[in-house]
Structures
1.
Amino acid sequence: MIKKQLSILEESVKDALLKPLGDLDLEEYGIVLSLDRGIVIVKGLYKVKYQELVEFSNGILGMVYNLNSDRTGIILLGNYENIRAGDRVKRTYKVASIPVSEDYLGRVINPLGKVLDEKGPIDTGIIMPVEREAPPIMHRAPINKPLQTGIKVIDSIVPVGKGQRELILGDRQTGKTAIAIDTIINQKDKNVICIYCSIAQQISSVSKIIDVLKTYDALSYTIVVMAGAEDPPGLAYIAPYAATTIAEFFMENGHDVLIIYDDLTKHARAYRELSLLLERPSGRESYPGDIFYIHSRLLERSTHLKPEYGGGSITALPIIETQAENLSSYIPTNLISITDGQIYLSPKIFQKGNIPAVDIGTSVSRVGGKTQIPAYRQITTSLKLTYSQFSELEVFSTFSARLDEKTKIILERGKRIRKVLNQAQYKPIDVTDQIAVLIAVLSGLFDDVDIEMIGQAEKIAIKTASKNLEFQLSISELNKIDDRIRDDFLKETALEITKELVNKDAKSKKHR
Ligand SMILES: Nc1ncnc2c1ncn2[C@@H]1O[C@H](COP(=O)(O)OP(=O)(O)O)[C@@H](O)[C@H]1O
Ligand SMILES: [Mg+2]
């Protein structure tokens, strides 16, 4: 089919080719034979290099991707509407690159550095190639600092470290983007530069995200790199590499960077489309054989550098959309194996209203645990244990009416822990406050509080903690919390809760 189209097109350019070519040097120039959504086949350009940029007569750029003996396959990086068979293409001797500078903070750009917002041109700094080698092992430092997402369920159970790659995956509309955006919002005043790479999303959803970042004062330390759904697939394909190059610029200058790829499912599809158009052989789910490699070489670039190599870090949160909760399809399994853990969002948990819908049983962080601050690590073990006990008992208890006292306590406490782990969007919580709330609920302070009032109980715990300087200090000193300080905090909180919540509750019950 494509062959047939090609031959028809070739007829139409025969004229162009038969015309005296004059001084047209087919080593330096080419002639467009055919084009399809995003791909141009060119005759000539015999000396061109793999991934070199070429320029069409209307100024649009393309990237050389297939080198055959008689024709060259080019991925378009711009609008193809004005390109015609017979047009000339010329070499640029450059690879795809992007300008990088601090001036890009707060801006929205495309993967070639073109400004997409209305804030005027940017003084371009250094130009760096979009595809770069990942830092060698000897340049890498261990991951030892936490990157706080501000989301209780993540920071406690699947903590992320600076330089880690943690996959966020789940069906559509399960809150994947929300987690990424809340994590960006939580980096305010924390000296972390954020890059949100939007891949083939509708313009309307990206502009909503930009508005949110503006509203929460988070755009000033964020760069949005986007290839829209309307853009050619070539742009979507290079977008995450370009965004990573910007991240590397900051990392190599000693900054901590957080990068979001939203999402790599669309990235894989863009690459599949390009590969099929280039008539490359396809394998499982029609993806080309090197689909694993395009994601592994991308995520290998996220790391924590040793001080002598810049000392910064790139923490990556790639997003993947699953279909019908199928974690074992091709792209999800690839990414699960490439990353250092995954946060799985379940639509069933989401429907029950437990949002963020993190499936604790399926989610894991393979390096983040070591980076948690000691005061936090102290409570996560008991949190995980209590919660998993509860999850088992909850299923079991639906079948039996009579429960002993001990079981009842586990169930009531578990329900309250689950409630505490629910969290509204755009409301990341400081790590000290998270610890205060979790210590309180795990010690049973919320056991007598009505489930509907748990939000208020949390506020009380946070308030008591904020007034207790000793408690605050013992957390910031990066030590475990002293038993006495902890007990004092618990006593105080218990008192306040009884005064403000339990009594009221009892009274209102009496009135009824
Ligand atoms: N913590 C939350 N609390 C309440 N609603 C949320 C929360 N997180 C996400 N949502 C809502 O759920 C919907 C889906 O979220 P979104 O992040 O866009 O999902 P996805 O990226 O997985 O498709 C959105 O309407 C969003 O506002
Ligand atoms: Mg999304």
2.
Amino acid sequence: MTRSTTVVVGASVAGVRVAQTLRRRGHDGPVILLEREPGNPYDKPALSKTVLVQDELPSALGTATELAEENIDFRAGTAVDGLDLVARQILIHGEEPVPFAQLVITTGSRPRRLSQFDGLRGVHYLRTRTDAAALRAAFIRGGRVVVIGGGFIGGEVAASARSLGLPVTIVEAAPRLLARLMPTEVSEVVAGLHRDHGVKVICGRTVTGYRGGSDIEAIELDDGTVLPTGIVVIGIGTVPDTAWLEGSGLRIDNGILCGPNLAAEATDGVFVAGDVARWHDPTTGFYDRAEHWTSARDQAAVVAHNLIADGPPKHFATDGYVWSDQFGVSIQHVGRTGPGLRTERRPTKVGRGQLFVHLSGGHVVGATTFDAPSDLLAVRRDLASR
Ligand SMILES: Cc1cc2nc3c(=O)[nH]c(=O)nc-3n(C[C@H](O)[C@H](O)[C@H](O)COP(=O)(O)OP(=O)(O)OC[C@H]3O[C@@H](n4cnc5c(N)ncnc54)[C@H](O)[C@@H]3O)c2cc1C
């Protein structure tokens, strides 16, 4: 190791972008990029969309050859087991520790599990390309699909299954779809979209059990409903991938706690980006964690800057942009939603699609659009200009 070795753990959008940005900004110290999965790094958003519907691979974030050409030492199939902050080493079972001068943690998140379904055939989670391939194979074989969880990923999986002609039911414990993220007005449009395409949407019901032996045969709900199914997809959110950091001394509480500059708290030269980061937002006084592609990309840029630039560190700020595609409808969101805000439907500029604005004290603080990208962009620009 030279004194300047930067190790990045996790090669998805955040990790790859950090490594590439360091190089593109002229950093010439050694950069080692460690990744648990084999193969080339890839992007995840297509996994619940086109990858399930067509014979399509997720888009690569760079091949091993391209990364090597940028002098990034990419090591696929390397699951990191631990972090020794005192010796400044990354620990890998059965291998020599990897020393670092600077460390970037970009290990993302993994699906929250329903342990009662562990080991049952026909039950799926969706996070990796292997998960997507298994789910697509199940869709091709056919059968009734039950999606547990009515968030963005659940909605996308349901739309993909339905577009392949499969009977689909979404079961959501909250009283409406997207309840954690969106106001009622938006949830209703999304639920309507699904119902219009033949998806059965059941909200306000929890899963209490299942029927079947080693294969899933049916899902039982708390009102006694039994939903026969051979394919269950569980999409009930994610948890930050921090198990490997247990005992490391890092401050972890639903993500790695870091400052607005994305430096891990109480450390020196350790940065965090992407789904695993829970940063302190000085404008609200709270910690926040995002599970969106754009945040991961933007955090990577901030971290790369703060690793190499002289002068004051950059702070991460987000406009909360997120997108989803369901039944060919482009859903986009920017800004805030939440308690105390009012949502209003407004006419769109080009007459098609739908625009909802979210208001605080009469001021637009966010917007959600359905097939109205120019309206979304207008609000996004307006928010950025304030
Ligand atoms: C199916 C799906 C659809 C999505 N669709 C959208 C969308 O439409 N819009 C949107 O905004 N966002 C979407 N997202 C979310 C978006 O993809 C994530 O926010 C983004 O991938 C986060 O990137 P990341 O680099 O922080 O972490 P991740 O993408 O989670 O990657 C973390 C990487 O770290 C590796 N890793 C973890 N632990 C270790 C370890 N111990 N050792 C070595 N490597 C390790 C993992 O293998 C993984 O490659 C979607 C996510 C999924 C799963």
